[in-house]
Design a protein that fits this description.
By secondary structure, the chain is α/β, with parallel strands linked by helices. The protein has 2 domains: 115 residues, Rossmann fold, CATH 3.40.50; 115 residues, Rossmann fold, CATH 3.40.50. A 4-stranded parallel sheet has the order 2-1-3-4, with helices on both faces. A 4-stranded parallel sheet has the order 6-5-7-8. Helix 12 links the parallel strand 7 and strand 8. Helix 5 packs antiparallel against helix 6 and helix 11 crosses helix 12. The longest helix is centred in the last third of the chain and has 18 residues. The protein is globular, with a radius of gyration of 18 Å. The two termini are 23 Å apart.
């Protein structure tokens, strides 16, 4: 099965270890992984800030970059969902709406792809430690991926899972929200970290790099020893 990796900006610039873990995991599951070098930002930050026309240029670039892909897989529920939004954004455009729909239909978040497309529930991972999981807003509420991550984590040998209180609450990142509404964002992530501390977990796991960067930053500033990992890194552990 041929898979094109949509790495996302945060993975490309800040968390290359997540991209590496994603590729190694998919290859171990029998996928032929390609990395289209023409990929750039999906346009989400500009679009969510109201710059619709400006963001469309980036979107068109991404549509063209992945037009020949069999499947597009991303280690980010938020960015994968943005591809799903493209047909709505280009609605009424006779050329780009059709192209956008083709891209949206073949795009998956990583855990969603493993469970729903590859039909794999146990990736053969081993990870020692007590973990909790942050369910990001876009991945859960908008993309609709609610159980795939848990299906995979429950089959990781050595892993102990503790449910996070208030797991449905936003961490306060929200892309440009954390910049425009920094004071509110700060209180939201503080509440999230307090819930994480209450679990007694050694690791916080998530599937969206933006959330993990935001929560991890707060944990570091508090001097807390809790480690923050992307789910791809856990599933790729042997």
């Amino acid at each position: 099965m041929k898979v094109s990796l949509f790495a996302t900006c945060l993975v490309d610039m800040f968390q290359s270890n997540v991209g590496k873990a994603t590729v190694e995991l998919l290859e171990r599951l029998g996928c032929d992984v390609a990395f289209p070098e023409g990929q750039i930002c999906c346009g989400q930050p500009a679009y969510n800030s109201g710059y619709v026309n400006e963001s469309k240029e980036a979107m068109k670039r991404m549509i063209e970059t992945f037009q020949d892909a069999e499947y597009v897989v991303s280690p980010s529920g938020s960015c994968a969902f943005m591809f799903k939004e493209y047909p709505h954004i280009f609605k009424g455009d006779p050329v780009w709406e059709t192209k956008a729909k083709k891209l949206a239909d073949k795009t998956y978040e990583l855990t969603q792809f493993i469970v729903d497309v590859l039909k794999v529930e146990d990736v053969g991972a081993r990870f020692e430690g007590n973990v909790t999981f942050h369910t990001s807003c876009h991945m859960t509420r908008l993309l609709g991926v609610r159980t795939a991550w848990m299906t995979l984590l429950k089959n990781v040998k050595g892993l102990t899972f503790t449910e996070l209180s208030g797991k449905e609450q936003c961490c306060g990142f929200g892309g440009t929200f954390s910049v425009k509404m920094s004071k509110i964002s700060e209180q939201m992530v503080e509440e999230k970290v307090c819930h994480i501390e209450e679990t007694g977990a050694d690791y916080l796991i998530g599937a969206d790099s933006g959330c993990l960067m935001n929560i991890g930053g707060r944990i570091d500033r508090k001097g807390n020893p809790i480690k923050v990992l992307h789910i791809a890194e856990v599933l790729n552990s042997q």
